[in-house]
Amino acid sequence: MGEGPAVALRDRLSAASEARSEPRASEVHRAGGRGGTGVACALGGFLLVAIALAPSLAGRTAFVPADYWLGSVPFAFAQPPAWHGFRSNTLLGDPAFLYAPELRVLHDAIGAGELPLWNRWMRAGESLLGNGQSGPLAPTTWPILLLPWPLGFAWSAVLRFGLLWLGAYLFARALALPRAASVAVAIGFCGAPLFAVHFEQLPRATAHVALPWLLWLVERMAARSGGGLRATARSALPLAAPAAFAGLAGYPPAAWTVLFGAGLYAAVRLPWRPVDRALASRACAGLAILIGVALAAPALVPFAAALRDSGTLGDRAEGGQWTLPLATLRLLWDPYAFGSPLARAAHPWNGPENFEEAQQYVGIVPWVLLAAGAPALRRLAGADRLRAAGLAALVAVSASLAFGLWPLQPLLTRVPPFSVNANPRLLFLAQTAVAALAALAATRRFRDVAPRSGGAFPIAAPIAIAAGLALVAVGAETNGAIRPWIAAGGAIAAVAALASAATAAQRRLAAALVPALWLADVGPAWAILHPQVPRDWADVARAVAALPDPLRAAGDPPRVAFERTTPPNVPALFGVEDVRAYSFPSPLRYDRYALEVMGAEAPMNLVPDDLAKPSVIAGLERTCAPWLMTTRRYEGTPLADRVAPVWDRRDRIFLDRLVRASPCAGWLPAEGATRVRDLDAAVGALRASLAAPGEEIVLEDGDVDARAAPIALVPAVMRWIRGDAIEVDVPDAARARDGWLVLRVSHDPGWRAAAASGAPLRVVPAQVRFLAVETPAGTGRVVLRYTPPGWRAAWTAAALALALLALTTAATRGPS
Fold this sequence. Notes:
816 residues; alpha+beta; 5-stranded mixed β-sheet; 5-stranded antiparallel β-sheet; 48% helix; 10% strand; globular
């Protein structure tokens, strides 16, 4: 009882002291300078990337790795001569083969006036929002979907880079850093390898844009920590917006990185006294982030449903144990120490991991700044101490998880999501935190240093300028022995100039040298990884014109089984259905069909050796693909009666007809189907039936297994009435009997079927990876529509979150 008032008074005084140490928004704004200088610094990222991508923004080139397509069939049939000398980046396979085809499907659908939820072109169909590749709900993706192809890729890149720069600049200003130091932080964020190297990895790079905005809003919360609960809640609510943006990006693992980083920084950075206010501020921040996650539910729930129905979690049960070898720390000094990923490199990449996962280079400049400012870190107090602690926590936790360091990595990787996450990708948090911490330390170190008259400035400044020019002129890819030394020497000279600047003009020049050197350090190193290609290389009409005549004359979009000479997903670019796909997560049914039923080497591709197996040919026949494009010849082989040659390209690429291909839609009587209890039984039954001359239809519908003999399906007419809706006519001769419509469309729990009368019909898995609809006697027409599982619940959650956000905003207005 006696200590209570004293403790309360101490807590109030401590809170007041912390509040006084926080910079007010008006003070930070005044520190930003007069006129348009502050605005120019904040928006400099937009200008910088616009200059770099000017040819693509103007439509003369394309910022999409179409050079990859030109190495694949049928693009390769019309290769321009310049392609053979083009220095492709071997890291850009995912942007070429995953994101661009998905986005092309959406682009064309939107141009036709619809936004489908199903992608019919890959893997005989898949959920557009469930694959974690396209991110159509992210605002930075909209230019790709709305502008003429492929112009939107460059404009989307401008938005990603410019918004990350702007958020980082605002975060640095909230740290009470001057303009030049804030620009340096923005360069550090944009030059972080897990953003800059992954810049064309659209969903991942898009999610990373949210990090500095979340950190900035945490700083704003801390600056308003002196108010009551209402003021705390009001300052926390804006966190929901960037949290939602991260969720809408389309790649939830990257969103997790960003939200985890923001949560960790908030937990350390927000004021700690008094205890009740500290707990309230952290709770408000956490709830605001959760509201943002709920706002992104329409993107997150379909992905979660697809992940649940995939084998990915099982495959990655030990994924959290993947760590980077300490040898990759060599890349902190030279980003090309293990070689280059560019084609025809003098020293090809031979590192312990792939280039983009292993890359650590944040520049030499921030380390020099951090070393120069280290003495100031020991003297930090109040808000600055918490800022430094929050940034250090981001570095320590992410580095521990990435490199397998004791004690955090062994502890955290026992629990999800760390147990299944690719934890080295958390290094984005460390890479950006180092930039902010270096700028904070150097700024505080030199803020109160008295300039020395007649100091080193006249010598140091020219040396720093010369070093910057040399960094631009000396290529990072082939000059790793000298370039880091140039950067280190220039950074040391810039620090000396900061310490010795005696006049206001000298101080401005010295301050400007730091971001200029930083940009010269990292900019050229990463710019070469993102080439722009001639615009006509991205013209899909090139592939359409090169298609074999039988495919172009097929009428409806043909379904083709492609050997790996045509990468998965690419056929969607030129309007051909592909029985394969490469995406994340991969449906369990698709994987088991490829690996266990057909006996293929890999689920996402078909290699020549696979196509010599009778089980693989039988499995392809059951996908209803009437065409096979391959490098194999079948004349004189046991498969010659099933694979008929139709067309060839210089006796090297062959288009064959699969003579026994099943109909894409067919009816059979109810008693003609084999019924099994579950997926395991279906895999075994279908595998055992492949050698039979006819096709046995295996349905997962029954408490006990009931086998039926192979039966010929009665072909039915199937029409796509929109991208996510199908109409099927039951054959006239079959309408008087109970039966099943078997459709070679990928099974997904989101499919719903109804008769023409509106009566719902049952949908069950068929042939492991496809679906069947039960048709009672009298059914004439069936309509199937697709919505992702949990779609309505996701929109309900988003609507409730939006309502809660609006109500809380209204309730927290006015004085605290």
